[in-house]
Design goal:
This is Chloride channel protein. By secondary structure, the chain is mostly helical. Helix content is 53%, strand content 6%. The radius of gyration is 29 Å and the shape is elongated.
């Protein structure tokens, strides 16, 4: 245990240089520079990456390894740790432990089970306890603005929420506006990110130039636009000092005479959290002019679009909340004659509607907003506006995270099978050529297959004289083959051996997932001509009970099975007994719409989608 602890402490400096400076300090500098971005994205990514590092048994590169980490070196525990890490990031960013659990359930996890539920809950509970301890330590003012508000960042519990039928009409209108704005935001962001990807591919100088350009535009807007706003006399019943003295507050002076404040500067010259707090504040119906709110909304909407995607760690939650709260306050002010709700509550509902229109998350966003504001009476209205905005926006495009996944070409499988998959079978989409190994295979054949392909799984088939007829043995993975080849336990003849030699020559964790970046590669292995002509028995390292489906199974059922079980490979076997024992292998890529469309160019997914909706 002492040796393990020493290794961890010795590697902290290297780990900070390579990772935390890039993400943590990049996020700190980006937020403090005034970019219109959020810190939740980098924190979620940081939590997931740390969990991934632990799930791979640590990192030998940074000497961050412990003996107990090897128990997590498997695919299932690695996925669970990453899910817990993302939940911890959300809980830390928003001080919303339950919202973090629901975010992991709704957005991060591809499959869910009861054991994962309590693990994520335990993780976020630890985050909440640590945050609470840090906030108590920082109450004396030693940590700047950190800790203000405790675990409730935007407390609205003092606002009395009483609503009637006319209020519901206004809220429905707000949800429709949020859905339209959210769909437009996702459409424009997709176009901008595609342009940014072309610019970023040209090298680091272009990335830096793009970031500097956006920084200059942001600075010009933040300092130049407040000049367009007129000075407003300080309210006589102001709760806090007017004009504001210090770093944060509702009433920024900005070139106004004594006793006056600039409402637009009060939004631009505050931190993003304080600007949201100003918009959510109750009893301030006349604090912001309508023209200032329109200018601020247009600026934040546009800056949020052009900022996301530059070479700065950033998230979308805070810009979306800012823009949504602004137009929510605009709607509340315009329709205040028919509604009794405070404009600050309309700002909260506007933020919820824009989040629903862009993120397309409902349960997690609802709980996160309630934990942020401590305003439980608003729960029915927040639920209603989220559902309306999501429903409206779904008619235009997908959620922003789904669009980014598609743009990056990641093989993400949806929770449900596409309607057109019901008209195809598993055997229709297997890609070839299929590479199989004999139960006792020549070393040269294995090395050649590993060098010319990037496949991670290979079917193993016993053939005569080992068996009378070809017989499927199971599936062997690339990593296990590399470990076996590296041991060079070869034979001169094609003879099936017992599995006992594996127990004698290999340890319990030799076939476990390697540490980050330190797995064996085929390029690292060298063989003589004599060794290439020798044989190796694959039976002891073959998974003899892989998941299989018959080639005539509906592709929709195969997709659901693949996703629910969290598989990497799904073997397709023939229906007729007189054929070769294996037809092909299904991986995530075989279920992707792009792959299916390349095999069936005349297939029209929209036709089957419309037919399923009509049915």
């Amino acid at each position: 245990m002492v040796v393990c602890t020493c290794k961890i402490w010795e590697s902290l400096i290297d780990l900070a240089i390579s990772f935390y400076i890039e993400k943590i300090f990049g996020s700190i500098l980006g937020v403090s520079a005034g970019f219109v971005l959020g810190k939740e994205g980098p924190m979620v990514h940081t939590g997931a990456c740390i969990a991934n590092l632990l799930g791979q048994g640590g990192s030998r590169k940074y000497h961050l390894t412990c003996n107990w980490l090897r128990y997590f070196k498997n695919d299932r525990d690695r996925r669970d740790l990453i899910t817990c890490g993302s939940a911890a990031g959300v809980a830390a960013a928003f001080r919303a432990p339950v919202g973090g659990v629901l975010f992991a359930l709704e957005e991060a996890a591809s499959w869910w089970r009861s054991a994962l539920l309590w693990r994520t809950f335990f993780t976020t509970a630890v985050v909440a306890v640590v945050l609470r301890g840090l906030i108590e330590f920082c109450r004396s003012g030693k940590c700047g603005l950190f800790g203000q508000g405790g675990l409730i960042m935007f407390d609205l519990s003092s606002t009395v929420a009483t609503y009637s039928t006319p209020d519901l009409i206004v809220i429905i209108v707000l949800g429709i506006i949020g859905g339209i704005f959210g769909g437009l935001f996702n459409f424009l962001l997709d176009k901008i990110l595609r342009v940014y990807s072309i610019i970023n591919e040209r090298g680091a100088p272009f990335k830096i130039l793009l970031t500097i350009t956006i920084s200059v535009i942001t600075s010009m807007c933040s300092y130049g636009l407040p000049w367009l706003a007129a000075c407003t006399r300080c309210p006589v019943d102001a709760v806090e000092q007017c004009p504001t003295v210090g770093r944060s507050g509702n009433y920024k002076n900005f070139q106004c005479p004594p006793g006056y404040y600039n409402d637009l500067a009060s939004l631009f010259f505050n931190t993003n959290d304080d600007a949201i707090r100003n918009l959510f504040s109750n009893g301030t119906a006349t604090e912001f002019r309508m023209s200032s709110l329109f200018i601020f909304f247009t600026a934040i909407y546009c800056l949020g679009l052009v900022t996301y995607g530059v070479a700065v760690p950033s998230g979308l939650f805070i810009p979306v909340i800012l823009a949504g709260a602004t137009y929510g306050r605009i709607v509340g002010t315009l329709l205040g004659s028919i509604s009794d709700l405070d404009p600050g509550l309309f700002a909260l509902l506007g933020a919820a509607s824009f989040l629903g229109g862009t993120m397309r998350m409902t349960v997690s966003v609802c709980v996160i907003l309630l934990e942020l504001t401590n305003d439980l009476p608003m729960l029915p209205l927040v639920m209603l506006v989220l559902l309306i905005s999501k429903t409206i926006a779904d008619n235009f495009n997908k959620g922003v995270y789904d669009q980014i996944v598609v743009m990056k070409g990641l093989p993400f499988m949806e929770a449900h099978a596409e309607p057109y998959m019901r008209h195809l079978v598993a055997g229709d989409v297997v890609s070839g050529p299929l590479i199989t190994f004999s139960g006792v295979e020549k070393v040269g054949n294995i090395v050649h297959a590993l060098r010319i392909t990037g496949h991670n799984g290979f079917p193993v088939v016993d053939e005569p004289p080992i068996t009378e007829t070809p017989e499927l043995v199971g599936l062997v993975t690339r990593s296990h083959l590399l470990v076996l080849l590296n041991s060079k336990n070869f034979m001169k003849g094609r003879v099936k051996t017992s599995g006992s030699f594996v127990l004698r020559r290999f340890g319990a964790f030799d076939f476990a997932k390697p540490g980050s970046g330190k797995g064996l590669k085929i390029e690292d292995l060298d063989f003589t001509d004599e060794e290439m002509e020798m044989y190796v028995d694959l039976h002891p390292i073959t998974n003899t009970s892989p998941y299989t489906v018959v080639e005539t199974m509906s592709l929709a059922k195969a997709a659901i099975l693949f996703r629910e079980l969290g598989l990497r490979h799904l073997l397709v076997v023939p229906k007729a007994p007189d054929r070769p024992p294996i037809v092909g292998i299904l991986t995530r890529h075989d279920f992707m719409p792009e792959h299916i469309h390349s095999l069936f160019p005349n297939l029209n997914p929209h036709k089957y989608h419309s037919a399923s909706m009509a049915g």
